[in-house]
Design goal:
InterPro entries: NDAH_ubi_oxred_su3_sf. Keywords: Mitochondrion. This is NADH dehydrogenase subunit 3. By secondary structure, this protein is mostly helical. The chain has one helix at residues 2-26.
Length: 27
């Protein structure tokens, strides 16, 4: 369960960075 939680957090972190970059590209 702990490993799954870590993977989830990493995935969310990556997704957040991608969203931030995407917003910058739109602007």
């Amino acid at each position: 369960t702990m490993a799954l939680l870590l993977i989830l957090i990493l995935t969310l972190g990556l997704a957040y960075e991608w969203i931030q970059k995407g917003l910058e590209w739109i602007e």
